Amino acid sequence: MAKTKRTRVNKARPGNSVRNSRRASVLRTYKVYINGKFPRTESGRSYEVAQTDDAAPIRACRCSKKDFRESVNAARSAFTGWSTAGAYLRGQIIYRIAEMLEGRREQFISELCANGTTQRRAATEMDAALDLLVNYAGWADKFQQVFSSVNPVNSSHFNFSVCEPTGVVSIIAPHNDGLFGLVANLAPVIVGGNTSVVLASESQPLCAVTLAEVLHSSDVPAGVVNILTGLEDELVSHFASHMDVNAVVYCGDDPSRIKLIQLEAARNVKRVVIRPNSQARQQPNPYFILDTQEIKTTWHPIGC
To answer: Does any domain span residue 9?
Structure first.
C-alpha cells in the first residue's frame, strides 16, 4: 500500500508575525489644531500636498470659514488667562516649546525635505527656529522694560506708558516657508500675551501640523495657538474681516492681497502688520513683539 506524503503546515501563533508577510504602511492624517484638539475640517474637504519624492501622496485639511470662526472663539476664550499670565511664565512655556521641538528634530527635517528642501538646508532651518524660540523666551520678561516709559509732563502727575497685548491676532504665514517663517511670526505674538489663529503655508503645511502636536503636548494652554491649513485665496478675507480679530499679520508681497486685507481690516479698525518675504524670515527682533502691542498711558496725580 502506497504511503501518503504529508505536508507540514506552519500555523502562525497569536501575537507572532508571519514571515515574509507584507503590510501596508500607516499613512499619517494631517488634521487642524483648534482649541487644543485635532479635529477634521467641518467641510470634509482636503487638498493634496506636493512632494518631491515618490512617496504616497499626502493630503491636508482644506479649512472653511466655520473652522476659522471656531478658532477665533477659542482664541478669545483663552486670551484672558494667557494675557494675565506672568511674563516669566510665558517665557518658560516658550522655552519648553523649543525643548520639545528639538526632541523631534529628525521628524521636522524629514518633513522639510519632503517639501523640497535639501538635508543641509533643512538642518540649518531647524537650528534657526530653535534659536529663535529661545531668544523670544528670553525677551518675555524684558520687552516691557524696553518699550514702557515714564513720560515728563508739565503738571502735577505721574505719566506712565506701558505695553498691553492687542488681543486675538490672525497670522497668514509665509507661503514658501514651512517652519522658520511660521515660528518667526508666531513667537512674538504669543510672547506678548496675545492669542492667535494661524494659516499655515498652503504648499508646505506639514511642519505646521507637527508644530501643533508639539504645542499640544507642551504647556501652552488650549486656544492660545490655533493652526489651520487650506487655500490662502479662500481664507484671507476671513482672516482680515472677522470682527473679533484685533490684528492681522500678513507675510507676503502680493499687492492685491495687501489691499484686500487693509480694506477688510478697516471694518473694525484692526491693526494690520505687513511683512514682505524679505522681513517675514528675519532673525529675532523685539520690535516684532511691539507690532502686536497696544500702548496704554496712565495719569496719576501727585500731591493731592
So the answer is: no
* Nine-digit cell string for 8: 507540514
Are the CB atoms for 125 and 105 separated by under 8 Å?
no
Residue with more model confidence, 94 or 16:
94
Location of C-alpha cell 518633513: 111
Q: What does the pLDDT look like over 182-207, one tens digit per residue?
A: 999 999 999 999 999 999 999 889 99
Q: Where are the beta strands (DSSP E) in the chain?
A: 46-49, 58-61, 149-150, 157-165, 168-172, 195-199, 225-228, 247-251, 271-275, 293-301
Q: Which three cell numbers stand for residue 256?
A: 492685491
Q: How many CB atoms lie within 10 A of CB 279?
A: 15
CA angle 263, 267, 269 (to 5 degrees): 90
Average pLDDT over residues 211-219: 93
Q: Say how many domains are in the chain.
A: 1
Q: HSE on the CB side for 256, CA within 13 Å? A: 1
**Residues of the domain holding 193:** 59-291
| 298 domain-assigned | no
Q: How far apart are CA 172 and CA 185, in angstroms?
A: 9
Predicted pLDDT of residue 283: 79
Per-residue pLDDT of 76-92, as tens digits, reads: 999 999 999 999 999 99
Q: Is residue 20 part of a domain?
A: no
How does DSSP classify residue 204?
-
Q: Is residue 12 part of a domain?
A: no
CATH number, domain of 82, equals 3.40.605.10
Residue 10: CA atoms inside 13 Å, Cβ hemisphere, count? 6
% of the chain beyond a pLDDT of 90? 67
Averaged pLDDT of the chain: 88
Alpha helices (H) along 29-118? 65-83, 87-103, 105-114
End-to-end Cα spacing for the chain? 124
